[in-house]
Design goal:
It is a single chain. By secondary structure, this protein is mainly α. The chain has one domain. Helix 1 crosses helix 3. The chain starts with 7 loop residues before the first helix and ends with a helix. InterPro entries: DUF7473.
């Protein structure tokens, strides 16, 4: 059995990768709703929901509290970054949640398939 150690570097790396993933999916959601947008704006959206997810997971916070909190912060970051009306922000947040969920499922499936590859 492989012993896994949690260090500050591994936590930081995981948080940064998760923030980057959420920023990429935020950009996809913003493009879906607004059309051509500056990709740098999406970099503001990903970090806070990623920190909420990592910290909440570390402290075993219930998903019933963690998911709404992350979605509220996600919406607030979309509103701050893109300066759009509330209805547009809600649409971007919903699409962001769907894109993130679907892409996560696909990436997890690919990981499982690669893990079962012979040889």
């Amino acid at each position: 059995m492989l012993l896994q150690t949690v260090t500050p570097i591994t936590v930081l790396g995981t948080t940064l990768l998760f923030a980057l993933f959420l920023s990429v999916t935020a950009h996809l959601a913003a493009r879906n709703v607004l059309g051509d947008v500056n990709p740098r704006r999406a970099l503001y959206v990903g970090p806070l929901p990623a920190v909420i997810g990592i910290v909440g997971g570390a402290f075993s916070v219930s998903g019933a509290l963690l998911v709404p909190a992350a979605l509220l912060v996600d919406g607030a970051m979309f509103a701050w970054s893109y300066d759009q009306p509330r209805r547009v922000v809600i649409a971007m947040t919903a699409i962001h949640a769907v894109i993130t969920t679907l892409l996560t499922i696909v990436l997890f499936g690919v990981t499982v398939l690669l893990g079962t590859m012979p040889g």
